[in-house]
Amino acid sequence: MPTRSPSPYPLLLRGRGSLVTIALTISIVLTILNFASLARATPPPDHLRALQRGVAITGWFRFPASADPAALRAYLPDPAIADLRRAGFTFVRLPVQPEFLLGAPDLLPLVIAAIRRLQRAGLAVVVDAHPAAWHLETSDPDRTALLAFWRLLAPALSPLEPRLTFPELLNEPVFPNAPDQWQALQASLLRVVRRALPQDTIVLTGNDWGSIAGLTALHPATDDNVVYSVHFYQPQELTSLAAYRPGLDRTALARLPFPGDAPDCADAAAGTDADTAGVIRFYCALHWNAARVAAEIGKAAEWGRRNHAAILVGEFGASASLAPAARDAWLRAVRDACEANGIGWALWGYDDVMGFNLPRPAGAHPRLEPGVLRALFQ
Predict the structure, then answer these.
(1) Strand, coil or helix: what is 76?
(2) 0.90 cut: is pTM over it?
(3) CA angle 63, 67, 73 (to 5 degrees)
(4) Which residues of the chain fall below pLDDT 70?
(5) C or N: which end of the chain has fewer Cβ atoms within 10 Å?
(6) Tell me, what's the pLDDT at 18?
(7) What integer pLDDT is reported at residue 285 of this predicted model?
(8) Please, are residues 332 and 371 in contact by the beta-carbon 8 Å criterion?
(9) pLDDT at residue number 41
(10) Domain boundaries of the chain, sorted by first residue
(11) pLDDT of residue 53
(12) Max alpha carbon distance in the chain (Å)?
């Protein structure tokens, strides 16, 4: 008598209980795989290590003083790049004005050459689409132009080392009260860039000028190899000397202390006009201090933890006109809050009043403000 071949479905032949067992087993396996997927839902560790301490070079390919190729090549000399690496920076944020590049695509090789020089010095590069006067919320031609910009730039970035190259889809999208509209546009941009750069970590952001509120309104992308950037300038009465409101006494505002809960905070209002005094009293009443800064940045960190996403404070800074003690204390508070949450950061900027305030161009060995360096690295 021949031996019967074993059934290929032995568990199914053992009744309803076995079917339950199978279902439970499948459920457990899927749960494990789901958690494993969530654990992987951040960029490679070596990519994140590159995004620890950054500074923006704000005037190289954004509002360049000269579009002459020789001037662009000479804007940031190799010794100045080496000084940045020596100071402790691990990456540079490089704003590129889409209008500038789309109007002169023959200059694209100069952008790529600049990125290569920075990377040869050991610096990663966040390449930031930084339009000047587009209205993406209302203008279809502007949206089309932004997509065209990335269709031009992304393939040109593909020969570069993915570990050191980070395309940032858009600086400070506005889209007031319309996070879903921005999310749809960002998804289209992400598809364009991902096709050209399958291994690069792409920098995303929320609406509302890239604020923490914009981040928390964002639905995480299905793409795991992304970082979410926020910009932080709170409180603006201090950091920008209330630049949002014209006609104030900036000299008086520059006397504001940080922390703002000091008993003599309102002394900065002495001898100034009523409007400026009102802004100063408003700032003092908010009691900004390091703990409050940490609480705000903690909101971004918590969103990242909840969504298994990497966060970057991609831009922060305070006016060089602010009293040095207050400025340095605020910069240190932001840096400490970021590092306590494992978040990288980038100062705005090397050649901007909110950062080192160096001239454009700055020369081969410009002096980096010691107080700012101490606030960032000590």
Answers:
(1) coil
(2) no
(3) 105
(4) 1-41
(5) N
(6) 47
(7) 97
(8) no
(9) 57
(10) 11-40, 44-234+288-377
(11) 98
(12) 112
Structure tokens at 81: 């790049």
Structure tokens at 77: 């000399």
Q: What is the DSSP string of 146-186?
A: HHHHHHHHHHHHTTS-GGGEEEE--SS---TT-HHHHHHHH
Tell me the three state secondary structure of residue 88: coil
Two tokens at 373?
A: 């360096």
Kindly report, residue by residue over 261-277, the tens digit of the pLDDT: 989 999 999 999 999 99
Query: How is residue 72 written in tokens?
Result: 């662009």
Distance separating the N- and C-terminal Cα atoms of the chain = 85
CATH number for the region 44-234+288-377 comes to 3.20.20.80
Do the Cβ atoms of 12 and 19 come closer than 8 Å?
yes
- CA–CA separation, 104 and 253 (whole Å): 41
- The stretches of the chain forming alpha helices (DSSP H) are 16-39, 45-50, 69-74, 78-87, 98-103, 108-120, 140-157, 179-196, 207-210, 212-216, 236-239, 250-253, 274-286, 290-306, 324-340, 370-377
pLDDT at 42: 84
Which residue type sits at 56?
A: A
And the tokens for 99?
A: 């209008």
Distance from C-alpha of 230 to C-alpha of 365, rounded to nearest angstrom: 30
Helix, strand, or coil here: 205?
strand
Tell me how far CA of residue 338 lies from CA of 58, 192, 218, 345, in angstroms: 22, 31, 20, 7
Instruction: Scan for tokens 């889809």, then name that residue.
Output: 169
